[in-house]
Amino acid sequence: MVARRRLEAMEQNRSKLIAAGRKAFAAEGFAAASMDELTASVSLTRGALYHNFGDKAGLLAAVVAQVDGEMAARAREASAAAADGWERLLAEGAAYIAMALDPEVRRIVLLDGPAFLGDPSRWPSQNACLDATKRTVAGLIADGVMKRVDIEAAARLLCGAALNAALWVAASDDPQSVLPKAVHAFRLMAEGFLLGDR
């Protein structure tokens, strides 16, 4: 019973720290966010942060994973009304790119994430996106919609194109004007995988 309560308390502390980190990183950016202020805002200590995440970058990784997971879910929701699997794939990519306009996504995932955590293609949340795209690509090939191509290669190119387009939009001085260019180019690139005309 005591062990279970301790685990529950640890999980609550972890959730509090992720929420506080998310708020601070979105508002101030990773570099400017104070660990003392962040932990004090949820009545915890630096020790709790170190225990749960190792360091501030570990907390950022947890926040990025949470936000990136939400991005993937939002992209899937945005594609739900598409007419078929191919249009869903394109709609998901376009929705992911468009999320670069969301200030929280822009700051945490697209600007600070790569700057402080390194190559996004190595993040666990991006690997989940890659796995989902591989399943979609495999289905589209089996249905005769996409050309016969290595499934992993196609999935990596599609995911990478969407991610890099989002990074471009986020880093742009004029994201609103860059977004339609990025989405258009993503669609044109993806159409190279089509088998025949659509």
Notes on the protein architecture:
By secondary structure, this protein is mainly α. The protein has a single domain (6-193), classed as Tetracycline Repressor, domain 2. It is built from 9 helices and no strands. It has helices spanning 2-28, 35-40, 46-53, 56-79, 85-98, 103-117, 124-142, 151-171, 175-191. Helix 6 crosses helix 8 and helix 7 (124-142) packs across helix 8. This is TetR/AcrR family transcriptional regulator.
Summed up, what is this model?
The chain is an all-alpha fold.
User: How many structural domains are formed by the residues?
Assistant: 1
CATH superfamily: Tetracycline Repressor, domain 2
SSE series? HHHHHHHHH
CATH topology: Tetracycline Repressor, domain 2
State the end-to-end CA separation: 61 Å
Tell me what portion of residues adopts beta-strand conformation.
under 5%
In DSSP terms, counting alpha (H) and pi (I) runs of 4 or more, how many helices? Answer: 9
Helix percent band: over 70%
User: What profile does the largest beta sheet have?
Assistant: none
Tally of DSSP β-strands? 0
CATH architecture: Orthogonal Bundle
In round numbers, the mean pLDDT is 92
Radius of gyration: 19 Å
CATH class: Mainly Alpha
Shape: elongated
Low-confidence stretches: none
Structural class: mainly alpha
